[in-house]
Amino acid sequence: MEVMKHSDELSFDGPFDDEGRPVLITAAATPYEEQHRQRVRRYLQLMFWRVPALLLAWLAYGIWENGLISLAIIAVSIPLPWMAVLIANDRPPRRPEEPRRYDAARRARAMGVAPRPALEQPQQIVDVPPDVPQQHRPEAGGAVPS
């Protein structure tokens, strides 16, 4: 499968590059089917190494009769299925022109934040006994003894 070359300039001189391949002149994302094909290909490439690793462990045990070498090879091959799934399910890389934004209002709607009136409204001190020293009064920055 040929990958189309991106062009920064649009012209009507011809829709091909120097090597005769068509030039992609759109900023649209790659189609879902193509992304899926790439993810499946990545998955199969990683899972391909699982069987040769097991065969190599069997061969290493047959040659050196050392179980530690075989176990080390098998231990390296154990996380391959998890890695393959994580890498294959990853989204395509973010394009440089795609901004990274944090939208607090959208996140609050998604999380369903409940109103907190006790925390959001300023509290008033109604009564401070006269026997409390001045340095322990709230307006002086001290703690009020209970």
From TrEMBL:
Task: Specify the superkingdom.
Answer: Bacteria
- Region Disordered, annotated ranges: 91-146
**UniProt KW Membrane keyword:** yes
Q: Where is the composition biased (Basic and acidic residues)?
A: 91-106
Q: Which residues form a coiled coil?
A: none
Which keywords does UniProt give here?
Answer: Membrane, Transmembrane, Transmembrane helix
Which ranges are annotated Low complexity under compositional bias?
121-133
The keyword Lyase belongs to this UniProt entry's keyword annotation: no
- Membrane-crossing segments per the record: 43-61, 67-88
Protein name in the entry: Transmembrane protein
Q: Which organism is it from?
A: Mycolicibacterium hassiacum (strain DSM 44199 / CIP 105218 / JCM 12690 / 3849) (Mycobacterium hassiacum)
